[in-house]
Amino acid sequence: xxxxxxxxxxxxxxxxxxxxxxxxxxxxxxxxxxxxxxxxxxxxxxxxxxxxxxxxxxxxxxxxxxxxxxxxxxxxxxxxxxxxxxxxxxxxxxxxxxxxxxxxxxxxxxxxxxxxxxxxxxxxxxxxx
Length: 129
What we know:
Blueprint lengths: L1 E6 L2 E6 L2 E8 L2 E5 L6 E5 L2 E7 L3 E7 L2 E6 L2 E6 L2 E4 L2 H42 L1
Parallel strand pairs: 1-9
Antiparallel strand pairs: 1-2, 3-4, 3-6, 5-8, 6-7, 7-10, 8-9
């Protein structure tokens, strides 16, 4: 299989000799073999592991994103990714960076929604008053 992992402004991985891929979705782990039917999945922050005929097993920490398999091509698009050899360090990176930023983004969205609601209320008062 051909695996390509894309970040917003770069190609993180582009390799051709992949024999097996495992990704984490919100519903659990999903394994891909070369003859698996085409599919798409929303990815949760977690570990993406793949086996390459020339490089052996590799693991990367990936943020939330999407995975699409069409034929022999597997395209993964995520916001952030880290490569490493120690699974424990990759798990720590996920917990400290990806999940912490997600909580911060939720807080920021909540603040922005409050500001928008306040603005809309002021506009409604201005139109009626």
